[in-house]
Amino acid sequence: MFPIKDNIPTDRFxxxxxxxxxxxxxxxxxxxxxxxxPWLNTxxxxxxxxxxAFPYEFTHPGDHCEAVGDSISCEGMPGVTGQADPQPATxxxxxxxxxxxxxxxxxxxxxxxxxxxxxxxxxxMGPVKFIVFYLLAGLAATGGxxxxxxxxxIPGIGASGAVAGVLGGYLLLFPKARVVTIIFIVFFFTILExxxxxxxxxxFIQQALFGYFDLTSGGNAEGGVAYFAHxxxxxxxxxxxxxxxxxxxxxxxxxxALSR
Length: 260
Known about the structure:
Layout: E1 2-6, H1 15-31, H2 45-51, H3 55-59, E2 65-68, E3 71-74, H4 90-96, H5 104-125, H6 127-148, H7 160-173, E4 178-185, E5 188-195, H8 196-216, H9 227-244, H10 247-258
Antiparallel strand pairs: 1-4, 2-3, 4-5
Helix pairs in contact: 1-5, 5-6, 5-7, 5-10, 6-7, 6-9, 7-8, 7-9, 8-9
């Protein structure tokens, strides 16, 4: 399933949602130095290691990780001697990592979901609360990944966890919203208008199942897709949205959608 747009109108221009999209794109192109790579698809690896979020660094305060040949070694690991090169503060990587991406497709997918669902969530709480909500969701996502893989020595990057928080909040605010969605069936596709509850509920169940299979297959969250970051962000969105959103605004948005 590939969502295109929803039917919930906004009262004002989503300045923070747009600013976050712009920030993510600029970070990818310039901070991650993808602008000169083939198809904009190979960001600088050293940059990812420096500013990505290593669960190991959070659970081993003061120890840092770096690339050694084709592998990554961390201070304090069995058999590792010496000190890593100077690294950014670990707490800083919790924020920088949520504005970094591994590929153009990774970036594009996250920004599409942020645009479709973020504008309405921002509208429900205002720009200041929304940026706080978004960043806290990203931190919760990092926490979820650390929880299941505390010794993981692979840098986590991506806005997926923070965006997952937005999805969780949207699901609770607008479960009856309709989302125009492209459905792919082998080599064919069709366009349907589906309930947000179905699309986002299916997405969450998918993340939970993939995360479970990743753990039971021996993956231990050691790489690939950070399913538990998605779960952590989504659960935060479900739990925290009522603390941030204005119920009167939500009702007005919902009524406007139903009157269309």
